[in-house]
Amino acid sequence: MGNELTIERMQTLNFRQSQLDSPIYKGGNPISLLVEKFGLDPEAINKLGSNENPLPTPDSVKKAIAQATHELNRYPPTSAELSEQLAAYIGRDLVADNFVIGNGGCEVLDLIAKSFVDPGDEAIICRPTFPIYDLTLRRLGANVVYADMNDDFTYNVERILAAVTDKTRLLYMTTPNNPTGTILTKAEQDELISRLPKHVLIVADEVYWQFNTDESMADSLRYVQEDANIVILHSFSKLFGLAGLRMGYAIGPERIISYLKRGQLPFHMNAVSIAAGMAAVADRDQIEETISMTLTERPKLTAGLAAIDGIEVVPSQANFVLIKPEKDSKEVEEALQSQGVIVRDLTNFYMPGYLRVSVGQPHENEALLDALTKIIAS
Predict the structure, then answer these.
(1) What angle do CA 68, 84, 117 make, to 5 degrees?
(2) Is the model's pLDDT at 285 over the cut of 90?
(3) Residues 323 and 276 reside in one and the same domain
(4) Do 292 and 167 reside in the same domain of the chain?
(5) Residue where a domain terminates, one of 282, 299, 319
(6) What is the distance between the alpha carbons of residues 16 and 108, in angstroms, rounded to a whole number?
(7) Number of domains, the chain
(8) Cα torsion for 295, 298, 303, 306, to the nearest 10°?
(9) What gap in Å lies between CA 279 and CA 58, rounded to an integer?
(10) Is-cis flag, bond preceding 54, omega within 30?
(11) Is residue 19 part of a domain?
């Protein structure tokens, strides 16, 4: 009776079919799940499944948040000052008008899709990659076209260009790519931009850019300076350690950023987030510590994983490492959880059989390697 009533009620409303057909995104497993499921001490759990900054929130950010709570009865300021800070931090002759800030990178991706895609339009994504692109596009009734990566997780430029039609509106290029950690090169980007038609906007998702050490990686900021059809996505969740506050931003030519801002709601950013973001960008010691730790621990973690028989490892330029165990990946994920280690099964990232391991603090990485070695050997 209850189900019949629900169906009857749904039929009386105009539920958009494209949204009904869209899956609900499932994030990485939280610490609370392992506490409940396995009775583990939360302090002993190593969360290496969501590519977060493993360092504690710095005092500078905590103080800024506390200060912001003194005037929560007032509407928040605009994000203009934070945009100015970001422009100074990144440099490259950028100005505040090159930035649009949102409640997480996912909201910015949603804003871009809503701003450029109509039902029946096409957008190209290169699997395996971040599934949010697919999700935001399908909700709008867009047709998602796949120009998949090569077997070694490099981009196939000719395959991408062959997928372009008169209906193509967006091309998503992720570098370093999530979940593979591989990059788009300057040569590949140059080729794409020189040959793409003018009605296509490149969405360059570069939320892991600070962890890249490969000098051949694409230089998207150059094309922002040249007023090309490109918009770059960055995040506060990785380097700045503000995943819990949901902050992200896009960088682009002023004509594109001004257009995107017209699609935002008034007072879309809250005062606490703006204050925390400004403090995080200003805390250069925390920024350097995060980068240094990641670049020190990543090769150690990669080598440790590669030393385990039955584990295939993909070298990464991000703050995570992609692995493929010979054993069933979901069984390995479950076994690691029982040992207090959270990693990410990648079935929802178009990669069944693979796992993604975030780079943690030294003791977290050691706990993972110890547990994984025992699980694979058992």
Answers:
(1) 95
(2) yes
(3) no
(4) no
(5) 282
(6) 22
(7) 2
(8) -150
(9) 9
(10) no
(11) no
Task: Based on the fold, state whether residues 121 and 254 are members of the same structural domain.
Answer: yes
| Range(s) of the domain holding residue 252 | 59-282
In order of 211, 217, 298, the CA distances from 175 in angstroms are 11, 8, 17
The answer as to whether 10 is a domain residue is no
pTM of this prediction?
A: 0.94
* 163 and 240 housed in the same domain: yes
Write down the mean pLDDT value for the chain: 95
SS (H, E, C) the chain: CHHHHHHHHHHHCCCCHHHHCCCCCCCCCCHHHHHHHHCCCHHHCEECCCCCCCCCCCHHHHHHHHHHHHHCCCCCCCCHHHHHHHHHHHCCCCCHHHEEEECCHHHHHHHHHHHHCCCCCEEEECCCCCCHHHHHHHHCCCEEEECCCCCCCCCCHHHHHHCCCCCEEEEEEECCCCCCCCCCEHHHHHHHHHHCCCCCEEEEECCCHHHCCCCCECCHHHHHHCCCCEEEEEECCCCCCCHHHCCEEEECCHHHHHHHHCCCCCCCCCHHHHHHHHHHHHCHHHHHHHHHHHHHHHHHHHHHHHCCCCEEEECCCCCEEEEEECCCHHHHHHHHHHCCEECEECHHHCCCCCEEEECCCHHHHHHHHHHHHHHHHC
What's 241's domain CATH number?
3.40.640.10
- Give residue-wise pLDDT tens across range 131-158: 999 999 999 999 999 999 999 999 999 9
Q: Are residues 162 and 33 in the same domain?
A: no
Strands 248-251 and 230-235: antiparallel
User: Within this chain, do residues 32 and 114 fall inside the same structural domain, yes or no?
Assistant: no
The rounded distance, in Å, linking the Cα atoms of 277 and 282 is 9
The label of the residue with tokens 């493929």 reads: 324
pLDDT, tens digit (0-9, with 9 covering 90-100), for 69-88: 999 999 999 999 999 999 99
With respect to residue 321, please indicate whether it lies within any of the assigned structural domains. yes
Residue 93 CB neighbour total at 10 angstroms: 10
Residues 35 and 95 in one domain: no
Tally Cβ neighbours within 10 Å of residue 295.
15
Start-to-end CA distance of the chain, whole Å, equals 49
In the predicted structure, residue 1 carries a pLDDT above the cut 50: no
